[in-house]
Amino acid sequence: NLRGISILAVLAFHIFPNAFPNAYLGVDIFFVISGYLVTLQLLKSREYRLGEYLSNFYFRRLKRIIPSAISIIVLTLIVTYSLLGVVIFVQNLSDAAWANAFMANWYYLKQNLNYFAARNLNLFQHYWSLAIEEQFYLVWPLIIFLFKRSKWPPLLVLITSGALYIFSHYPASFYGSQNRAWELAAGSLLTINNKK
What we know:
The protein is an all-alpha fold. It contains 9 helices and no strands.
């Protein structure tokens, strides 16, 4: 599983940064693969009405993501309170709330938190990438729905991906959704190319 390898690369970067200085690129690879797989799922969808198409997608997505995401947040808070005390627990409540809302990336962006320089005890910082994925999938299913009905489907996604890439160069740092959306869209283009 390539996504598993990309996650291992990121872990290697965090644990052995000097030995694997570029392994953080596993995040970029993960986004591309995620875009590929989710677009493949959307293209295989047989629903013909927009409401049914979107509701089925979001139901499957939430059913897969929500239980594990919330369970980890709650378990982390319980362990934090038990082992690290009430002060650290309270310090991380806000982070937990933003992580639970899939908005952690914008929360850390607003705090001007440097991902590579962070040395504080931040228990939910890793939720930034999940937040970007979920924000992207608020829009992408609709684009693919239109893509499936377009006379020039590859052109539609190509233009969208190109626009996202251009937009990604606007300042928003490591956490910005607009800085990462083009990677998910690039994976989608690979799916469409393979489906020809």
